[in-house]
Amino acid sequence: MMKKYYIRDIAKNLNCLNSEIIIYGWIQQLREFKTIYFGILEDSTDCIRIAISKELVSFSLKNEQSIKIEGVVTFDKRNNLQIEARRIELIGDISVNYSPRPRSMKSIFEYTKSNQIEYNKHIYIRNNIIRQMLIARAHVMDSIREWFKTEGYIEVTAPILTPILLYDDSTGIDVHIKEQDLFLTQCVGFYLESAVHSLERVYNIGPSFRKNESVSRRHLMEYWHVKSEVAFCNLSEMCSIVENMISYIVGSLDNDIGYKLANDIGTDLNLDGINIPFIKVEYRDALKILEINGIHIDFGKNINEKGLTILSQYYNGPFWLMHKPKTIEGFPYKISKEDNRLTQTADLIASNGKGEILGVAEKITDTNELINRIYEKNKNPEDYKWFIELRQYGSVPHCGMGMGVERLIRWIFSMPHVKDVIPFPRRINKRIYP
Fold first, then answer.
1. Could you give the strand order of the β-sheet that contains 355-362, starting from the edge strand earlier in sequence?
2. Same domain, 68 and 132
C-alpha cells in the first residue's frame, strides 16, 4: 500500500499526464451531480480535483473520508489538473461528526472557534492552515539546528526529570518517584553548564515546563526551549552570537518557501530579525520611557506585556532590554559591577508588540557569590551542591541563552498566540485534552 505518488508529484511531473496512477488521500470537498461526483482530494503535500463516475462507487461517498483512487491525470475544462477515476476504494470511513469540518475551515484563529479547535486538535490538526503552520515550525527548527551545526556547537541531550529548579518552587511541576521529590525541567541550563566545561559550545532543544499563572499570548505550561552555553564568553559577546543566530533563522525564510507558507497560513512574514545589530536599551531607561507614557513600574519589577508593547513602538525592529534587576532574575546570573541591583542579563524583545522571545545571561563563576544568590532566592545550597561544584573545579567565564521556540515562530509568522504554533498546546488553567 505504500504511496508511490503524492499529489505534489503530479504537478511537478507532467509525464504522468494521460497515464494511469494510484493516489491516496482524503476528500476535502465533494459535489454530487446526477451521474458523477466532482471533488477535491487532499494529502500532506497538496490537493487536486477529482471526477468520479457514480457507477464506480459502491459505498456512500463523504467529505473527510480517506480513499484510494486509480485514475488518469488530465486537464479539466478550466485547464486545472484533474484525476478521472477508473477505480475507487474506501480506506477509512467517517463515523463521528465535527462541525465545522477540519478541511473546510479557512480561518482557525477566530475566538469563537478557539477552544473547540484546541480541545479537538487530534482531528483539527488535519486543517490545511494548521498543517502549513506545522511545516513552518519544522523549517524554523531545521534552521536553528543548521545554525548551531554550522557554528560548531555540539547538541547535548539533557534530562527532563530534575531535583532542582531555576525559578521559584511554586512554578515547578512536581513529580514524586520512589520517595524522591522531582520536577519536570524548567530549564536545562544547569546541565549545559556542566557540559560547557567539556565541549565549550553546546546547545539543547527540548521541552520545558513552567506552572506560571500568566495567561498572556506568550505563555504555555509546556513549551519547546532552545538553550545554549558558550565558554570564555561575556554578555556583550553573547548578544552578538544570538543576533547572528536570529538573523540566520529569519533569513532562511526570506525566500519562496517562507512567503508561500505565510500566504497559506494567512499571515504576514516578519523579517525584522534580519537586520543586526539590534538596539540596546537599559532597564532604567525603559522605565523612564514608560513613565512618560503613563505606566509606572517600580524599580526591580518586571515590565509587563503592555509595557513591552509600548517600548516596541519606539524602535524599528527588535531590541535588547539590558541589565534586568536581580530581584526578578535567576540566581546563577552575574551581578553588574556598575550597579549591584542589576544583573549581567539581557532580554530580546520582538518587534510588533510580540514581547520577549529570549534571554541571555553571563553566569556567576565565584562560589561564594553563587551561594549568596541561592540564599537570596530562599533556596537551600545543599540542594544545588553539584551545581556549586562546577565553580570549584576549573570553572571558566561562560554565558547562556534560552529561547522559546513558539515565541520565535509566533513573531516570524505574525501569529496571534503561541498556542497556534504548537501541535498540542498545554496551557495553565486549561483542561489538558487530548
1. 154-155, 201-209, 222-231, 398-404, 355-362, 345-350, 319-322, 279-282
2. no
